[in-house]
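Example (one chain per record):
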Amino acid sequence: MAKKWEYATVPLLVHATKQILDTWGDDGWELVQVVPGPNSEQLVAYLKREKA
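Predicted structure:
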């Protein structure tokens, strides 16, 4: 059976990036990519996890 995934996009605050990613990682989310956000001080993380 093929794996099924769910995805999330999460704004990252520069001063709390590790804390934010650790929190999502503890919930089973895997970081896929980080891209620039709408302004120069923000990044957006794309995450995925296998559906239960």
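Caption: Helices lie at 17-26.
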